[in-house]
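Changelog note: in this version the structure field was regenerated for every chain. One regenerated record is shown below for reference.
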Amino acid sequence: MLPIGAHMSIAGGAHLAFSRGEEAGCAAMQIFTRNASRWRARDLTLEEAQAFEEAWAKSSIGPVLAHDSYLINLGSSEQELYEKSIAAFLDEMNRCALLKIPFLVMHPGAHQGAGEKTGLDRIGEAFRIIFSEGPPEVTVLLENTAGQGTYLGGRFEHLTEIMERAPEGRFGVCFDTCHAFAAGYDLSTGEGYLRTMEEFDHRVGLEKIRAFHLNDSKKGLGAHVDRHEHIGQGAIGREGFTALMRDQRFRNIPKVLETPKGDGVEFDRMNLHTLREMAGEL
């Protein structure tokens, strides 16, 4: 099966995400390893890690990604927030290592008015600390952003600049379709998709893409606003997603939805069915 899926809840225990993912039709999955809206989180127990490993072994779901907390800002010029962010990110990496999740997706951060160069320097400094202390088996996936406000990562070259500032880093990229489109990279046509990927290859390198977030956009091209829509129902539309789903270079790269949820898994099932149709699998 194509390694596509969705972000799934860990309510009641991380191991329960697998049954939810299977119900939705996932062959890949993304989770939070902790409450994403709070700084403090209790430690994972060895029993919880074992339950997660056993559920994964029994599951039809293959690749699993984790996403870090949205509170973390490694680009912050506020020293207290900066230090809290580094500590929280290290905790996220250690959780991934305990659960044997190889990839941790993160938004690079916001410079909060200090300027682009200062923000990128702060992120690079943070990652030099993080990679000196964090578990070596976890790879950090930098996620491109919509470039909203002072958020960094809206331009592809920001991702390369961060990697260059921490050359000892274990980095890859998670390519978010909504964010790229909102940042001004046109993915709405087959031709636009190819141009965008050529630009990414020139600025970063296609080999760095280790995962995709598949989200349509409620807002228009270059709006710099991050609002996700169901696949094919937003401003990107069907043509661009079809081009991506039929691009053999990325066939085996995990692709996960972060599209709007309903009361159950019906919207995830709908979007995954759409993607499989686009890929020519149905």
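Spot check on this record: The mean pLDDT is 97. Residues 118 and 220 are 29 Å apart (CA to CA).
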